[in-house]
Design a protein that fits this description.
Chain lengths: ~280, ~300, ~250, ~280, ~250
């Protein structure tokens, strides 16, 4: 009995040790990824800085990265940076949630019922090519210039790619798997939630990432509707006051924060799709 | 006068502020309106307008009660049926001029023939360009007008993509200070004025409050005249521009006349004709009538009086 | 539940795959379907299950004509059809209702029955072919269906695992008195399990022969009767072959 | 011999007849689709017209559909309509081709080689959330205000969704199929072209449709760069001159033409994916 | 080409699937792999093919140790693995080089050999299970590979189609002198085809027994020798079974 327990505990320690080792490997791999991923941006920044110092780019058009960084730091010091980032991130996330929710409901519906597709899909597809700026006057008219109209505007941007990918995912689900569900007497809702959604998850997640990207893009249009804070506001301000360092600061902030939110989605994607039988890349 | 038919107090007053209207910034910064209406529990809500067209959009959609715009923009909107009145002139700005780079070889309006000129159709700089060409007798067809947003026009000019630019402050002040761009044609009188507009509805139901807002603007105007340096600082701070640009911009604003009068009326009619010729305003609109509808000096006259 | 097919046929895009198949099975009977590849066996199972409703003819379950998917039906498809995003255990309990605990207990029991007690937490991509097939078997059996449709359920298994699972099937059949239709290419399997063997042939497939087996279960695998039956069946299949090899 | 020929010819006629019948059915189905798809837009238009007539919407902000239609007809009569539509469609299509080509090359590369992914992907993902308007000053700086900069701007918009969907498609390709290619000694290029692209076609086509939609959206930013014709120009002109009927006319044109181009892609999608084993919808 | 495995093993995520397998095959030999489900047969084939290179031990082809994918290799996977976007004919000619005409001619010939001459234009979703498997067989054989790895190639086929294809395989083997490794659960098949039968057992799988068959081909299916061998193999498999059923 004792011997057995001892054995069990060795096994456990071993497992533990190997797990810890795994984690270490994982962490060092993560660091490697980050380093590799930073190479090109850093090279670009250095080239840009050098060209700016050599005055190949005139400063009033394209200031050096150090100047732009100075602008961002300045914003950080007077405290307004966090306001801009905070309010924009809030708007994007709220719009993202709203847009995704609507897209899931409508997308499952349209993907699943032929009649629904014939009724709604043509119109939705037509709306898809209306530019964000075109919505601005209509949104101001319908919803005024408060937060709701801004969030809805972003939700519109998020909606389309999510919707499109959900439908394509649903259509692509293997008939064979759906039949298993039917044999097990699942109703339509269960079919969607237990088979179709998981099976179309890869496509759905791509849609989410596309949608989030578009959400960030729609921020500018949203913040044209009477905002006095936010990254989109900063961008437009920079354009109106001909301040390239403000424009570039807002671009860089967009890129960084957009990348950050996308990275979160990417991690979720990797977790959620671990079951895919895919080739380990060379 | 109109102050007799008050319908009670509004719950709140929604004001716009804009970087092209320095007095609006001063007023917002100093909080004089808040002070004025605090006792009655009326809230003041400030909304930023990024441009004349935004201010008018906000007015039209009942998102603000007072909006600042260029006179010409207000006229176009009015011609489209917008229910607004101009009740106050916040400045006589020289915010637009024709700008070029030294290597373009342009020194007068005459040289523009056959050249590319960037301008934003429908805005004050565009009207300015048309009137300048008209003045010098150059047909519009001889000039290639390229429609761009103001900031983009400045970039295109410094990059050399266009030969001249119908500029707008503060962009114009900035290119003037930081690159070698020069203003080769200036004419204060071809600028339409800075109009403070109010929604007709608001003016009808709360005329007394219109007067009190105008009084607030007056206070800001007087303060700005007395403290040009501090005003420039406020502008620089709010609009995130350098103090030099802010000072240059302020210098080009004349705050002496605030009551809408005949000069404004005439300037707007001239602008309206140009816009009609440029097909921005419909040909069958009666410019004089529209202008008279738009400009309503009674509030300012009553408040400022003499 | 009893089962009856009347002149069932199926046409795919103008081409007939199977035609004029009629047979019936009382509750608790085991019917074997034998036939050459592509003669319409799977097509018939799909028609019986209700997954396919565009067949000609009629199918009656418990006397009632229907084209819907039956309650209490179990289907082992020709491919494992596991859900790649679910673990082995979750795949097995997919069709079960009840609390999580109950489901897992039942699922684990059946996993043990098919010899996969240790693999409950694996994902389908980690399974061997035969293991996947056994998971599919467990998934169909765990719901204790009244009608069981099996499409070559044991084809990817070694001889002994196969025998074990055949006996498991008979256990379940005894407990729940299920009506079973089984498609198989293994004649020994058919003679060991079935009350009646229906041999299809040709393209479009038609019923060529029906053989009844009135032997008590459990049957002896090596018995003389079964060996004789095997010879009979082989001969009748050979006939088709000779005929078809002309073209 | 003769008899046989006769038989063959009967069979042929039969086939022919059934084909013709199939085509008839198809055509009447198409008509049905179009009718069904038009129901909701038409209802919306009628409601809008009625509300406008009742002056629920003030004409200076949201003119009635009939007024907007009048504007479009007016543009058509003075001939400028075709110029606007033509130039914008040309820009979108050119940008679409360019963006798609780059996305296919980069996407296959990044999807296929781990190192390429680690190097390029983080930066590309960061660029994805930069709004179209933010690119405008940079593009003017880099490429001036001619057609190339406009087309490139649209290509940027098209690029991202196509890229994202290609990668997700490639990652989702079943390992089992790729192994068949490897056994047949396909090289990397053949693996991509003969297995990975066809297998990820559903995702790729979704990307194309998403990308085309974004291309239409980027038109406005593109035509901010000194255009004197085009739907985006019309939209911005409408906003600058405070003319809601021009804005709405351009929105409706965007929707219609965007829908049309999407419809073409949708037909291609249906043709290209006929091999999918998918459930017939209820 | 000759083939040699030395102490080959494979571990998946810490769990050993198969270990210490060594055997060799001269050119033109047919090796059979038998064993219970999940004992590592497919894993071994993948290692030999070079698709999997993370095994322990060494594999030598023609005397040269390598972990790459071999030229001139044919692999029939346990699943059909057809490309759903290609027709049957295009699937068969997938690995061929040359002009379209040549490819199609060859492809059609092999389709005829596997009895699918009429189905050349169908898409995989329109095939029955056995038809799909036959397409996969044709696809592997059409390239006339020097090494052929077959993973339960005939499992989904009826008895007579199976026999026909076994003979087709022997034809090809005779023409090209291919070295063949075949995984099968059908003992009759193994004794009919193979020069040597390797029986794996246990989990992780290990070689339990090797049986050589020195009979000339073509062999008589009903011969006494094969029947004796079958009994021997059954017994050795039975042993495993008895052992495993303890846990
Ligand atoms: N990718 C994988 N990841 C983890 N485990 C795996 C993987 N592939 C195979 N295994 C494990 O390796 C063992 C052997 O699998 P393999 O496919 O070789 O079996 P097999 O002998 O071919 O069985 P069968 O006759 O059922 O096909 C199994 O226990 C399986 O769970
Ligand atoms: N979805 C389909 N579309 C077109 N033809 C089909 C379809 N499904 C099956 N068929 C055809 O119907 C015939 C019978 O197929 P079925 O799957 O029933 O064969 P089977 O008897 O199960 O054969 P196997 O033993 O090979 O599984 C085949 O010729 C096949 O080509
Ligand atoms: Mg079948
Ligand atoms: Mg296997």
């Amino acid at each position: 009995m004792e011997k057995m327990e001892a054995e069990v505990s060795t096994v456990l320690t071993k497992e533990h040790a190997s797990k810890r080792k795994d984690q270490q490997i994982k962490r060092s791999k993560n660091v490697e990824h980050i380093v590799l991923g930073s190479i090109i941006p850093i090279i670009l920044l250095i080239v840009w800085e050098i060209l700016s110092r050599l005055e190949v780019f005139p400063a009033y058009m394209l200031p050096a990265p150090s100047v732009v960084l100075g602008t961002i730091v300045g914003l950080g010091q007077d405290g307004s940076l966090w306001g801009h980032i905070g309010i924009t991130t809030y708007r994007v996330l709220a719009g993202f949630v709203l847009g995704t929710a609507v897209a899931v409901v409508l997308g499952s519906f349209v993907g699943f019922y032929q009649k629904a597709e014939q009724l709604f899909d043509p119109m939705i597809q037509a709306f898809r090519s209306i530019p964000s700026l075109a919505w601005v006057p209509l949104f101001i008219l319908w919803m005024g210039i408060g937060e709701p109209s801004k969030i809805t505007m972003i939700a519109v941007g998020v909606f389309f790619p999510v919707y499109l990918n959900i439908i394509s995912g649903i259509i692509g689900v293997d008939r064979k798997l759906i039949e298993v569900g039917k044999i097990n007497k699942l109703n339509s809702f269960q079919l969607v939630s237990r088979i179709i959604l998981p099976a179309s998850l890869p496509s759905f997640l791509t849609g989410l990432r596309s949608g989030l990207g578009l959400g960030w893009m729609f921020v500018v249009a949203a913040e044209l509707m009477g905002a006095s804070q936010g990254l989109g506001y900063l961008l437009v301000l920079g354009q109106n006051t001909l301040s390239p360092e403000t424009i570039l600061a807002s671009i860089i902030l967009f890129a960084l924060i957009g990348k950050l939110t996308d990275w979160i989605l990417k991690i979720i994607e990797a977790r959620a799709l671990h079951w895919q039988d895919r080739l380990v890349k060379s | 006068s109109s102050s007799t038919s008050t319908e009670g107090a509004p719950e709140k007053i929604r004001m716009d502020y804009a970087y092209y209207s320095p007095t609006s910034l001063v007023l917002k910064e100093k909080g004089w309106l808040e002070e004025e209406f605090e006792a009655e529990g009326i809230e003041i809500e400030w909304v930023l307008s990024q441009g004349s067209n935004k201010a008018l959009e906000f007015l039209n959609s009942n998102s603000v009660d007072f909006g600042s715009s260029a006179g010409a923009a207000a006229l176009i909107s009015k011609a489209n049926g917008a229910p607004i009145n101009n009740v106050y002139i916040y400045s006589k700005p020289e915010w637009t001029a024709l700008v070029t780079m030294p290597e373009s070889g342009i020194s007068s309006v005459k040289d523009l023939a056959g050249k590319k000129v960037a301008a934003t159709i429908g805005t004050d700089p565009y009207i300015f360009l048309l009137r300048a060409l008209n003045e010098e007798g150059i047909p519009v067809e001889d000039v290639e007008i390229i429609n761009m947003q103001h900031g983009d026009g400045a970039n295109a000019l410094t990059k050399g993509s266009v030969d001249a630019w119908a500029g707008l402050d503060p962009n114009m002040a900035r290119v003037e200070l930081e690159s070698d761009a020069s203003l080769f044609y200036r004419n204060v009188d071809f600028n339409t004025y800075g109009f403070l507009n109010v929604r007709e509805d608001f003016a009808k139901s709360h005329p007394e409050y219109v007067n009190r807002v105008i009084a607030g603007y007056e206070k800001a105007r007087e303060w700005t005249l007395e403290n040009p340096k501090e005003a420039a600082e406020i502008l620089a701070e709010e609009a995130s521009i350098s103090i030099e640009v802010a000072q240059l911009t302020l210098e080009r604003n004349d705050f002496s006349e605030a009551i809408p009068a005949d000069v404004h009326h005439d300037a707007l009619i001239e602008a309206g004709k140009v816009l009609q010729a440029g097909e921005v305003i419909d040909a069958n609109v009666d410019i004089e009538e529209i202008t008279s509808d738009l400009i309503n000096p009674s509030f300012a006259e009553e408040t400022i009086g003499d | 539940m009893s089962l009856e097919l009347r002149n069932v046929g199926r046409t795919f895009a103008g081409k007939q795959a199977v035609r004029d198949v009629s047979f019936s099975a009382k509750q608790g009977k085991i019917i074997g379907l034998l036939g050459t590849s592509g003669c319409g066996k799977s097509t018939l199972l799909r028609a019986i299950s209700g997954l396919d409703s565009e067949y000609d003819g009629e199918i009656a379950v418990n006397g009632a004509i229907t084209r819907d998917i039956q309650d209490e039906i179990g289907f082992i498809f020709q491919e494992p059809r596991l859900f790649p995003w679910l673990t082995v255990l979750d795949n097995v309990t997919f069709g079960l209702k009840g609390t999580k605990n109950e489901k897992e207990k039942l699922g684990k029991m059946y996993l043990k029955n098919v010899g996969l007690a240790d693999s409950a937490k694996l994902y389908p991509k980690q399974l061997s072919g035969g293991m996947a097939q056994r998971v599919a078997i467990a998934r169909a059996l765990v719901t204790s269906p009244e009608i069981l449709l099996l499409d070559e359920p044991f084809s990817a298994l070694d001889a002994f695992t196969k025998m074990q699972l055949q006996d498991l099937l008979l256990d379940i059949w005894e407990t729940y008195q299920s009506t079973i239709v089984i498609v198989t290419h293994d004649i020994d399997e058919a003679t060991y399990l079935c009350d009646r063997i229906i041999i299809l042939r040709g393209q479009p497939g038609e019923i060529d022969k029906e053989i009844g087996i009135n032997e008590q279960r459990p049957r002896a695998r090596g018995s003389k009767l079964l060996a004789e039956l095997k010879t009979e069946i082989l001969e009748s299949l050979d006939l088709n072959r000779a005929e078809e090899s002309v073209n």
